[in-house]
Amino acid sequence: MAQGTAEPAIELAGVQHSYGTAPVLRGLDLSVQRGEIYALLGGNGAGKSTTLSALLGFIAPSSGSVRVCGIDPVSDPRGARAQMAYVPENVSLYDHLTARENIAYFLALAGHDTGASVIEPALGAVGLDSQAWDRRMSGFSKGMRQKVAIALALARDVPVLLLDEPTSGLDPRAVLEFNGLLDTARERQVAVLMVTHDLVSAVDIADRIGFLTAGRIEEEQQAGEGARFDLNALHDRYAGTGQAI
Ligand SMILES: Nc1ncnc2c1ncn2[C@@H]1O[C@H](COP(=O)(O)OP(=O)(O)OP(=O)(O)O)[C@@H](O)[C@H]1O
Ligand SMILES: [Mg+2]
């Protein structure tokens, strides 16, 4: 892992991508350091999920460079994915397996240790009630599923975490718990890229907020020393683009 180096864990530079003839990313520059939480905002269809797809190596940009801990996800997708955990909006884990079995299964696939000493601290860290650890996931709520997905990410101990609309559909208490989880990830020096429409969560937890408009980061704001973002100003700024929140 690249801990201690100045190189950003996530780096997109001049990235262009079109689906067919429709350009989506038009020279996107974005970087996230380890121990930093970056909230990527933008209207529906702005290209936020496409940005994550580029990092995951699901798409190959027509130009520009994409690096995850220095690895190009197009030329070395396995190497890049070994550095990343990705939590999509709708977490897809196996319903017929328990939370513990799901984590063990995906850890085994990644060639990791699957012992209780790895799995239990991760399930504990995400605050999933220990009574649920050995229950099948078919009865889990959205918030519980997300906790298991993040527990898997923590157990894998990867330096990069990608989250697509992680708080959509979570109740306010679950959002607070989720923000606490990101604090844990930050303490562990994880680089977090969070795509979101949830300004409240972004204001509470992000170190940096970027607006994706017309295929590039149109504006970036950094949380200052002791000073958080101005929610009302952000809301006006966001709604003022004419795109849906
Ligand atoms: N596989 C695909 N094939 C063709 N067009 C696509 C594909 N995926 C996304 N698009 C188009 O690319 C644009 C950006 O999509 P993307 O999913 O990245 O947006 P987004 O910012 O994540 O939006 P949302 O907030 O609605 O999730 C949209 O116009 C979308 O229709
Ligand atoms: Mg999306």
TrEMBL record:
Task: Answer yes or no on keyword Signal.
Answer: no
Organism's domain of life?
Bacteria
PROSITE patterns recorded for this chain?
ABC_TRANSPORTER_1 (PS00211), ABC_TRANSPORTER_2 (PS50893)
Which Gene Ontology MF annotations are present?
A: ATP binding; ATP hydrolysis activity
Using the record's annotation, list all stretches that form the ABC transporter domain: 10-239
Q: Provide the coiled-coil residue spans.
A: none
Enumerate the Pfam families for this protein. Answer: ABC_tran
The protein's UniProt keywords, in alphabetical order, are: ATP-binding, Nucleotide-binding, Transport
- Residues that span the membrane, as ranges: none
CDD domains with a match to the protein in the record: ABC_DR_subfamily_A (cd03230)
The question of whether Nucleotide-binding is a record keyword is answered with: yes
What name has this protein been given in UniProt? ATP-binding cassette domain-containing protein
